[in-house]
């Protein structure tokens, strides 16, 4: 049966979403095209109707995941983001978590088009968090941007270090706790008054 253009677009989007999740779980080299297509519910041969190569899919899946992360943080200020991001739930939910934390190490060794997607995604996330956090009219834009970049880099590093430890390791939790408290304290100029109450905000993905 002939596939309509609309259905083909839906199938492609489903493949991209599936690939984004699998890449976050296993890395770019941890899943092959045949397995990826089977997971999405399609045959291996159908892959090349949508993509020229796995590298093309990697770039599109990265852009998809990075865009989703930025969109989920649009309503969060920087402190709410840190509470949600530097958490055990995010640490353990690799497949549904942030593409930056899951794949930055892999992306650094990939072709420039994938690293370009990461740069664009990091820029979008930085802009979204800066817009939410820069409520004070006298806050200098450059200072606000530096604060967001510092908090984001620290948050990503905390998740990556924690994931490098065994799941049951006390160090995995200690890294998250220490880094979360440090980031929140730095956001309040080091006075440590930032509330550490658990956030119900959506988890970045």
Oligomeric composition of the shown chains: single chain
- CATH class assignment of the domain at 53-187: Mainly Alpha
Query: What's the end-to-end separation, in Å?
Result: 36 Å
What is the N-to-C succession of helices and strands?
HHHHHHHHH
Number of helical regions: 9
CATH topology tier name of the domain at 53-187: Tetracycline Repressor, domain 2
Which CATH-level-2 architecture of the domain at 53-187? Orthogonal Bundle
Number of strands: 0
State the CATH superfamily name of the domain at 53-187: Tetracycline Repressor, domain 2
Structural class: mainly alpha
Quote the beta fraction: under 5%
Radius of gyration: 19 Å
State the major sheet. none
Helix amount = 55-70%
Q: Which residues sit in consecutive blocks of at least 5 with pLDDT less than 50? A: 190-202
Q: Tell me the overall shape.
A: globular
Quote the average pLDDT: 88
Could you explain the architecture of this structure?
- Residues 32-51 bind DNA.
- InterPro entries: Homeodomain-like_sf (IPR009057), HTH_TetR (IPR001647), Tet_transcr_reg_TetR-rel_C_sf (IPR036271).
- Keywords: DNA-binding, Transcription, Transcription regulation.
- It holds the Pfam family TetR_N.
- Residues 9-69 form the HTH tetR-type domain.
- The chain is mostly helical and 205 residues long.
- It has a domain at 53-187: Tetracycline Repressor, domain 2, CATH 1.10.357.
- It is 66% helix and 0% strand.
- It has nine helices and no strands.
- It has helices spanning 5-26, 33-40, 54-72, 78-85, 88-92, 99-107, 112-133, 141-164, 170-187.
- Helix 4 (78-85) packs antiparallel against helix 9 (170-187) and helix 8 (141-164) runs antiparallel to helix 9.
- The protein is globular and about 60 Å long.
- The two termini are 36 Å apart.
């Amino acid at each position: 049966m002939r596939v309509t253009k609309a259905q083909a677009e839906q199938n492609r989007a489903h493949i991209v979403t599936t690939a984004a999740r699998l890449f976050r779980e296993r890395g770019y080299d941890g899943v092959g095209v045949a397995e990826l297509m089977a997971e999405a519910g399609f045959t291996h041969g159908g892959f090349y109707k949508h993509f020229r190569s796995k590298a093309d899919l990697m770039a599109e899946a990265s852009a998809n995941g990075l865009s989703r992360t930025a969109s989920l943080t649009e309503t969060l200020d920087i402190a709410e983001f840190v509470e949600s991001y530097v958490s055990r739930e995010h640490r353990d939910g690799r497949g549904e978590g942030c593409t930056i934390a899951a794949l930055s190490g892999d992306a650094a060794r990939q072709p420039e088009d994938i690293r370009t997607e990461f740069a664009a995604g990091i820029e979008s996330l930085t802009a979204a968090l800066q817009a939410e956090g820069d409520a004070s009219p006298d806050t200098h834009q450059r200072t606000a941007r530096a604060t967001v970049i510092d908090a984001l880099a620290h948050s990503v590093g905390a998740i990556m270090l924690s994931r490098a430890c065994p799941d049951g390791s006390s160090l995995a939790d200690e890294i998250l706790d220490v880094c979360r408290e440090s980031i929140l304290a730095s956001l309040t100029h080091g006075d440590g008054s930032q509330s550490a109450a658990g956030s119900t905000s959506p988890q970045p993905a």
